[in-house]
Amino acid sequence: MELTVSETFISGKAVYAGIVRDITKRKNIEEELARHRDHLELLVQQRTNELSKVNEALQKLADVDGLTQIANRRNFDETLQKELQRAIRHQHLISLMMCDIDYFKQYNDRYGYLAGDECLINVAKCLKSSFKRASDVPARYGGEEFAVILPHTARMEARLMSERFIKSIETLKIPHETSDISDYVTISIGIVSVIPDLPCDINALIKAADNKLYEAKNNGRNRIEAVELKSVN
């Protein structure tokens, strides 16, 4: 109930009038509207959370290689560009390691593509466990080729980490009967380290690391070739 009192003066005397209203219906409507509002706010929050999860999943799909579950080529290119610019700006070392599986075509021909995929997955796991600092970015560069971005890392440190990676591959003992150098799967690695300066772009850095990778392959495979350069352009 709601009581409204008004005051008036008649012949100099105060006269009070009161009106009593039954507001039960109005209160019920207000309470019902409040419940609907709370329900709508809850639905909006739930939808917002769902959209956030979907966006996170889509971002992961865009950044992660579907087979190996490490960074894909797109993610690698974008991250390397950012890290290279940061290294130029602050004049600190950056290393880039590139590697591939020795005689992988022959491996696929001998064991089949499903076994080849399993081999790539296992190599990627070793790569991720060998380069596990927060700043390290292991990635699948393409096919059987992998890469790792190593900010603030000198040549010797990058080499030691790569040696650990090679040893972890050796412990897997993945049979490779058609390899010319081993009974098991092996890895060749090229490393370039530099304090970059302008002009410098990711293609020049990748080419320098790729050259060391091919040097490792030409020198017998299952090995590391590394260099620290004064500049890359």
CATH architecture of the largest domain: 2-Layer Sandwich
Derived from helix and strand composition plus strand pairing, the structural class reads alpha+beta
Secondary-structure element order, N to C: EEHHEHHEEHEHE
Averaged pLDDT: 87
Tally of discrete structural domains:
2
Question: What's the tally of helices?
Answer: 6
Task: List low-pLDDT spans.
Answer: none
What is the rounded Rg?
A: 33 Å
The best one-word shape is elongated
Biggest sheet statistics: 5 strands, mixed
CATH class of the largest domain: Alpha Beta
Q: In short, what is this structure?
A:
This protein has 233 residues and is of the alpha+beta class.
Could you walk me through the main structural features you see in this protein, from its secondary elements to its overall organization?
The chain has 233 residues and is α+β, with helices and mostly antiparallel strands. The protein folds into 2 domains: 63 residues; 157 residues, Reverse transcriptase/Diguanylate cyclase domain (Alpha-Beta Plaits), CATH 3.30.70. The strands form 2 sheets. Strands 4-5-3-6-7 form a 5-stranded mixed β-sheet, sandwiched between helices. A two-stranded antiparallel sheet has the order 1-2. Strand 4 and strand 5 form a beta hairpin. It is elongated.
Quick tags:
233 residues, alpha+beta, Alpha-Beta Plaits, two-stranded antiparallel ribbon, elongated
Q: Any chance you could write out the topology, listing elements then pairs?
A:
Blueprint: E1 2-10, E2 13-21, H1 24-63, H2 73-90, E3 94-101, H3 104-111, H4 113-130, E4 137-142, E5 145-151, H5 155-172, E6 187-194, H6 202-218, E7 224-229
Parallel strand pairs: 6-7
Antiparallel strand pairs: 1-2, 3-5, 3-6, 4-5
Helix pairs in contact: 3-4, 4-5
